[in-house]
Write a structure and sequence with these properties.
This protein is mainly alpha-helical and 97 residues long. 69% of the residues lie in helices and 0% in strands. It contains three helices and no strands. The two termini are 15 Å apart.
């Protein structure tokens, strides 16, 4: 497989994972009616999908609600990381061997 084709597949896979995680966490959050502080059935999967960003003390910056903390902020942070990965892979694929 050629280097550029490999790069394209990696970028598509990364974006697919980020979008699927964001959609899954939003659907689970809506289906359960919010975050139950660990007492509801979907709280653990929501927490795992939000890792590692849920561990950041966002209260210092602002007082985000549960949906923002468990769905929006992790999705936004993962999009930034995915964009950085996309840039790095494109630079890598354009280098000469």
């Amino acid at each position: 497989m050629e280097k550029r084709q490999f790069t394209r597949y990696c970028i598509l896979a990364a974006w697919a994972v980020v979008i699927a995680g964001g959609v899954a966490s939003s659907v689970m959050f809506a289906a359960q009616g919010g975050f139950g502080r660990g007492h509801r059935a979907l709280d653990l999967p929501l927490f795992v999908l939000a890792l590692p960003w849920v561990l950041v003390p966002w209260d210092i910056v602002a007082e985000p609600g549960d949906y923002v903390r468990f769905a929006v902020l992790p999705f936004a942070c993962n999009c930034v990381l995915c964009a950085a990965l996309q840039y790095a892979l494109r630079v890598w694929s354009q280098r000469r061997p």
